[in-house]
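Why does residue order matter? Because the sequence determines the fold. Keep that principle in mind as you read this record.
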Amino acid sequence: MTEATGRLAAALQDRYQIERELGQGGMATVYLAHDLRHDRPVALKVLRAELAAVIGAERFLAEIKTTANLQHPHILPLFDSGSADSFLYYVMPYVEGESLRDRLSREKQLPVDEAVRIATEVAEALEYAHEQGVIHRDIKPENILLHGGHALVADFGIALAVTKIGGPRMTETGLSLGTPSYMSPEQAMGEREITPRADIYALGCVLYEMLLGEPPFTGPTAQAVVAKVMTEKPGPIVARRERVPPWVEEAVFTALEKLPADRFATAAQFAEALRAGAPPPARAAPARSAAGTRAWIQDWRSWVTAGVAMAAVSVAVLSRRGPASLSAPVARFDVALPGRPTPSLGNFLVAPAISPDGTILVYDAMARDSTGVARRELFARRLDAIEPTLIPGTEGGRAPFFSPDGRWIGFWVGPRLVKVPVTGGTPITLADSTDPFMSTGSWGSDGTVVFPIAMDALGEVDARGGTVRILYRDSTRIVEDPTVLPDGKSVLFLRCRRDDCGQHQEVAVVNLASRVVRILTAPGVFRMVEYLSTGHLLYVRGDLLVRADAELATAPFDLRKGITGDETPVVEHVQSFSISRTGTLVTIGAAASRNTLVVVGLDGTEHQLGDSTRDYLFPAVSPDGRRVAMEIHDAAGGQIWVYDTTSRALTRLTSQGHNTSPVWSPDAARIAYSSARGAASAIYAVPADGGGLEQRIGLAAPAIAFARLSWSRGGARIAYESGEGIGSVSSTFTVAAAPDSVGRAVPQLGRRAGRPVFSGDGRWLAYVESQSGRDEVYVSPFPGPGGRWAVSAGGGDEPVWAPSGRTLFYRGADGWLYAATLALGGPVLITHRARLFDTRPYVADAGYDVFPDGRHFVFVREDRASSTVGVTLNWFTDLDQRLQAGRGARRRD
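Structure:
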């Protein structure tokens, strides 16, 4: 280890462990290091000492922040930057693979289709960066890494930072920016204003070299190369390599024009010319600005799992083949989807949408902007990429689905059905003011989008927008999971009777033209039915609430006859799935999460409650503060338990059904909860000491109709949220705490009000209602009449009253717990609002409660979520092998 390396290792020993030097470039030395904080290998690049001395730490670190916001599948992200001792450094992922320079040194020339693909991927990265106002300025084979055969552009914007700061003093270092063989004429002339077309020129040089084995201009010295760049034309390509298509040669020559105005106006035009066969004429590029772009803080930057290298190869093969071959090798791996919430009864997690070609996952997740505010957005995760990227224009989005050509994403924003290009853009509304039941959708090959418009109806709308037409309606049924079949003429869906939906769904098909409905199966436990091109039906079988029962199964299927053969189980413990037409299968596992109950003080200090880790949900503190009721979810469903803080004993109160949302009666004698039992759901109450029989409160209802209970002072009424099913629109009701009483809506609350909580005196209701796709906390007098007043500002959820009845706690959109002190009377006034502590370490949507002292809370801390996203490439091969094995076993029997 050199003296300089030793000094660097000592300076960074608290953050990075230097392992070895990887190489040296014109501006930096690259080391392989271990990130101690995140336990991962990284590439640590240290600017040359003379360059660092000219630039200075403060200005370099301020300027390099621009590159930290670039998130694209073909851009190597910036993890970190800093100064230590006299060193300036920046940190990027360490990619197992090689650079394009390494491969060219070994192979000299690349296959034509591979060279064009790599150039196209780099062009896509450049287009994205240029739209953010960032120009690379040093595109060359050394800065293009190959991971799984696909391109990752490194050192994005580093040259910009050095140029902008170093300026005229760069000559003092003896260094020059840019590499002569890939330097545009305007860079070679030293022009101060460099445009994106300089990057396009450099990419043209790189593609030229991939095709012919050398750059367009070479020479014995840098000065000789620059002279050729300024005066000579590049040599012909097709004449030296006949297999290069003429349009590729023309595209390269357009990129290599001396005058920037004669080149492609954008990198996207260059990519299109390589794909389409004829380059469009160059035209002026629209003005772009980085102003207004959001600096998303994504602390979840993760690496792909070990299987992703295999995935990249398989994905590339699939992309060239089209439909999957039954002889293709099967590859399985797990993928982490950062920002996804933990699955639970109240937050049923669906599998990400998979693109028709099986290469891109799209899912909804929570992300935080530069101010810390959390928003639900859509993210795209290429299976051959290092990490997911935000899809611009998808704020508030959920439940995405692809268009048949894979170019568009349909999704929901509140009650609106919208679409954006898969690369992002301004959302286009397809259907407004709908009332979706399960928030799903399916996009047919003829441009028809089918979706549930209510619990009992399917609707259709043109993918260009327009009038929503009712496709199917039956007031006695619940309908869900529509899928437009490959012929574009019919829609497969599930339906069941309102009074018997838990165990008896039917698979049905409706003709888009005639509206004729045919029932294709006998009633059974079906979920998420998909029709496969292999002639099979793929579905989840098992009770939604009992995870141990859920499995993915298939059966031979004929659109005229229905299921025609034996069922074959294919994957155990599956909660949901999606599948591409090429046979890429995506599954969400149904294993339980492992959580810890913790008591948190006003200052954020915490200690564990009890000594076990389980799948805890919805903790509720007894009025005397001695006991905590909760749901514990296991493989058999959810049951209500009580933990005694004095004896440290954990006692189970329920034994049948799936039970959730426990709440204490005001006298602490009973605990009420929502219970789903087969096809019906109801509120039940049981003695808190476990010594008596449970009693039903109110009437039973179909599906999962009760959640988030609150018991009024005096015990007269229970408020609850009802949506008539998971994923449906919620409303707030109250019911008398007696058998056979009828629930009634709270008239002054909106139709989308949920999570009701009675104040201590029972005269006020706090609740959550979505306004323009964002949840806010409100209060309203009970039983009314009266107005409604917003308590949260900038987003809020999960209100809980303090025992005093004058303070309302809630979780803000930034993830912190807030305390709003209210003056209740006529108009509600907020006299004080305090930001208490960060609740992001605790499971979102799992509930929390406050102890009687008003200074301590019980939360659910997530220790390990074992629910995973599994990906199987070429699953049709696996299916074929299973079916052959099954047929062989039956013949032997």
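Confidence is low (pLDDT under 50) at residues 165-177, 278-326, 342-347, 724-729.
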